[in-house]
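We emphasize that the prediction below concerns an isolated chain of 170 residues; any contacts that depend on oligomerization or on bound cofactors are therefore not represented. The input was used exactly as deposited, without trimming of termini.
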Amino acid sequence: MRISYDKVAGDCLHPLDRNDVARIMRCIDPQIKQRISTLRFRHNAQTTQEGTTRRIGDSYEVTVNFCLKNYRSRILNVKNKKYLNEKKRFGGSIDLENREVRWSPSNAKRYATFLLLHEIGHVAYYEKYLDLRTDNGSTKKEEDWCDTFSVRTMKKLGENTGGEQGQPPM
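Result of the prediction step, given as a token string:
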């Protein structure tokens, strides 16, 4: 599996380093892991998604687009309560006026872990329900399944998942 990181300026960072990714990947089923050809950590301020999973032939490319500038990230959708509550759940401090989320280093790492595992969850979902998958984008059922996959795997890692949806971390 190839792992790549976009180069970032000095005041920007990717919360997960290669050691974090290796620790996370040790909890992934080998059959799922072998289907992932590339993990990409992007820095694209113009995107409307923090993660994507694409099937390319027989393998998958997983992309996480969560890069911080001075421990802040952009709010991509100020009207989506689930999206905002997810940030709060992992300890992000929402600033709607400036359309940004402020993060501590540890909370940013936990949220990036959640994002990465959610995207890997799409690979697991596609493999499990391949005959049911269409190319019309993911469904709410699929997104919920991937959230559950992510939280369950984070618990295996001993990560704090923030309790119930929308609740701050303990």
